[in-house]
From TrEMBL:
<keyword id="KW-0472">Membrane</keyword>
<dbReference type="InterPro" id="IPR013766">
    <property type="entry name" value="Thioredoxin_domain"/>
</dbReference>
<dbReference type="Pfam" id="PF02630">
    <property type="entry name" value="SCO1-SenC"/>
</dbReference>
<feature type="domain" description="Thioredoxin">
    <location>
        <begin position="10"/>
        <end position="197"/>
    </location>
</feature>
<keyword id="KW-0186">Copper</keyword>
<dbReference type="InterPro" id="IPR003782">
    <property type="entry name" value="SCO1/SenC"/>
</dbReference>
<keyword id="KW-0812">Transmembrane</keyword>
<comment type="similarity">
    <text>Belongs to the SCO1/2 family.</text>
</comment>
<dbReference type="InterPro" id="IPR036249">
    <property type="entry name" value="Thioredoxin-like_sf"/>
</dbReference>
<feature type="disulfide bond" description="Redox-active">
    <location>
        <begin position="68"/>
        <end position="72"/>
    </location>
</feature>
<feature type="signal peptide">
    <location>
        <begin position="1"/>
        <end position="20"/>
    </location>
</feature>
<keyword id="KW-1133">Transmembrane helix</keyword>
<feature type="binding site">
    <location>
        <position position="68"/>
    </location>
    <ligand>
        <name>Cu cation</name>
    </ligand>
</feature>
<feature type="binding site">
    <location>
        <position position="72"/>
    </location>
    <ligand>
        <name>Cu cation</name>
    </ligand>
</feature>
<protein>
    <recommendedName>
        <fullName>Thioredoxin domain-containing protein</fullName>
    </recommendedName>
</protein>
<keyword id="KW-0732">Signal</keyword>
<keyword id="KW-0479">Metal-binding</keyword>
Length: 251
């Protein structure tokens, strides 16, 4: 699945070189709050607020559009496939794909859901919600997350960044995972962290205490690497203190 994502990225990059496209801004803020009262329509046509959709569960949220010919569908499938490998109960979290295209309908959402069904189990599919909003609710929520997009009317497409956002049950962004770098462990830990430790095992909680999150890679750093970083900093501090002490004695 990851190889398909990388191949798609290469193809997309090649297409962009034909005609330079200014990338929309992408600046998601940890702690940013979504408007829980915004109404969204799911693949059945029912309309509910974001708060009702979350239902007190942590979530992974992806913004895009259902008819996207590039990375949206591949990202959905990668998230669905990797969520199967996390070992978490799908009843304990939500996976939301929110369309930024106000023209998309519940039928479009249903079609996207059918494709993702191939990458997960029936139980896993119940965690997924494909959401649209004729009033632009999806685009507004994306803006609240710091994600913006440009329209390309001539080809009926959008240019937009794509990432996986871990969101707390109260609708706050707790972690941002770049779409092409996450692993099943990252999705699991992001949901455990977003749940305020209501999900996961003791080992997960110990890992989160000992490990860090590498924002440059969008991945959780293994404890050994976190320890090595801390040890390296401590060594530099000791060496610096020793050099300073020697300099004072010679002075």
């Amino acid at each position: 699945m990851k190889s398909l994502l990388l191949a798609a990225l290469v193809l997309l990059g090649s297409a962009v070189t034909v005609r330079a496209v200014e990338r929309p801004s992408f600046d998601p803020k940890i702690g940013a709050q979504f408007d829980l009262g915004r109404k969204l329509r799911d693949s059945s046509g029912a309309e509910r607020s974001l708060d009702e959709i979350l239902s007190g569960k942590p979530a992974l949220v992806v913004f895009g559009y259902d008819k996207c010919p590039n990375l949206c569908g591949l990202t959905q499938q990668a998230v669905a496939s990797d969520l199967r490998k996390t070992g978490l109960d799908p009843a304990d979290y939500r996976a939301l794909f929110i369309s930024i295209d106000r023209t998309e309908t519940a039928e479009d959402a249903a079609s996207a859901k059918e494709v993702v069904a191939q990458s997960t189990t029936p139980a896993g599919l119940k965690a997924w919600h494909f959401l649209t909003g004729a009033d632009g609710a999806g685009a507004s929520l994306a803006a609240e997350a710091g994600i913006h997009f440009d329209t390309r009317p001539r080809v009926n497409q959008f240019v937009h960044p794509i990432a996986v956002l871990a969101v707390t049950p109260k609708g706050r962004i707790s972690r941002v995972l770049p779409a092409l770098t996450f692993e099943p462990r990252d999705l699991r830990l992001a949901l455990v962290e977003a749940s305020a430790n209501k999900l996961g095992s003791i080992a997960d909680h110990v890992f989160l205490l000992c490990a860090g999150f590498d924002t440059s890679k969008g991945q959780y750093t293994a404890p050994i690497w976190a320890a090595l970083k801390i040890g390296g900093i401590a060594t530099l501090l000791v060496l610096g203190s020793g050099i300073a002490l020697l300099a004072r004695r010679r002075a």
